[in-house]
C-alpha cells in the first residue's frame, strides 16, 4: 500500500505542484541571454518538449519502482526519479522566464509513460532496465539536437536554455550507463522503432499544445 501511495503522491506533485530542485539550475554566468520575440517562441517550444520529457521520466521511473520486487532496483529507480526532478524544475523555471507555459496534455503524457513503465517492469527487471537504457539514449539524442546550431536547435544566443539542456544530456547519459551496468537487456529493434515513433508524436504535439 505504501508503494501505491508513493506513486500517487509523485503523480500529483509532478502534475499539479511546483517542483523543487536540490541542485542549482545550470547557468553560464559570463554569457547574457537576450532574445527577440521569434527566438523566445522557438526556445519555449523546445523547452516545453523537454519539460514533457521530464514529466514522462517521473512517470516511467515511478512505475518501474512500483513494479519491481527487487528493493535495490527500486531504490535505483527512486533515486533516478529524484534526480530527474531537478530537470523538471529547471525546465519549468526556464519556460516561465521565456513567458511561456507547460504542455496542456501533461496528464496524458504522464499516464502513457506510467503505463509503459508498469508494463516493462512486469516483464522483468532486465527488460525494465533495457527500457531505461533505450529511453535515455533516445532522450539524449533529442537533447543533442537542441544543442545543434541549425534552425531546429535552440537559438545560439539562448545561453540559459543551452546550459540546462547540456546538463540534462550529461545526466541522461549517466542514467543510461547506470541502467546498463545494473543488468539491462537489449530491446528488440522493432520495440526501439516503436519507441522512436511514439517519441516523435509526443515531441511534435508538445511543441504546440
What key phrases describe this protein's structure?
74% helix, globular, mainly alpha, 209 residues
How would you describe the overall organization of this protein?
The model has no long low-confidence stretch (mean pLDDT 92). The chain is globular and about 50 Å long. It starts with a helix and ends with a helix. With 209 residues, the protein is mainly α. Helices cover 74% and strands 0% of the residues. The protein has helices at residues 2-16, 37-67, 71-97, 106-122, 125-147, 159-181, 189-206.
Summarize the structure.
This protein is mainly α and 209 residues long. It is built from seven helices and no strands.
**In whole angstroms, how far apart are the ends?**
35 Å
Strand content: under 5%
The helix-and-strand class reads: mainly alpha
Mean pLDDT across residues = 92
Strand runs, count? 0
State Rg.
17 Å
Shape: globular
Helicity level: over 70%
Helix tally equals 7
Write the layout of secondary structure elements.
Layout: H1 2-16, H2 37-67, H3 71-97, H4 106-122, H5 125-147, H6 159-181, H7 189-206
Amino acid at each position: 500500500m505504501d508503494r501505491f501511495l508513493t506513486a500517487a503522491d509523485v503523480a500529483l506533485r509532478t502534475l499539479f505542484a511546483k517542483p523543487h530542485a536540490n541542485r542549482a539550475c545550470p547557468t553560464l554566468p559570463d554569457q547574457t541571454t537576450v532574445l527577440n520575440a521569434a527566438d523566445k517562441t522557438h526556445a519555449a517550444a523546445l523547452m516545453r518538449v523537454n519539460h514533457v520529457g521530464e514529466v514522462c521520466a517521473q512517470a516511467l521511473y515511478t512505475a518501474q519502482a512500483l513494479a519491481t520486487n527487487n528493493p535495490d532496483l527500486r531504490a535505483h529507480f527512486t533515486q533516478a526519479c529524484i534526480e530527474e526532478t531537478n530537470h523538471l524544475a529547471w525546465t519549468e523555471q526556464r519556460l516561465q522566464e521565456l513567458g511561456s507555459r507547460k504542455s496542456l496534455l501533461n496528464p496524458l503524457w504522464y499516464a502513457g509513460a506510467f503505463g509503459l513503465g508498469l508494463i516493462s517492469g512486469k516483464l522483468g527487471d532486465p527488460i525494465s532496465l533495457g527500457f531505461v537504457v533505450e529511453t535515455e539514449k533516445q532522450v539524449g539524442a533529442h537533447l543533442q539536437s537542441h544543442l545543434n546550431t541549425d534552425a531546429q536547435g535552440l537559438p545560439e544566443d539562448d545561453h540559459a536554455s543551452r546550459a540546462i539542456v547540456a546538463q540534462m544530456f550529461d545526466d541522461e547519459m549517466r542514467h543510461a550507463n547506470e541502467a546498463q551496468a545494473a543488468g539491462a537487456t537489449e530491446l528488440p529493434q522493432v520495440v526501439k522503432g516503436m519507441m522512436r515513433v511514439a517519441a516523435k508524436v509526443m515531441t511534435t504535439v508538445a511543441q504546440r499544445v
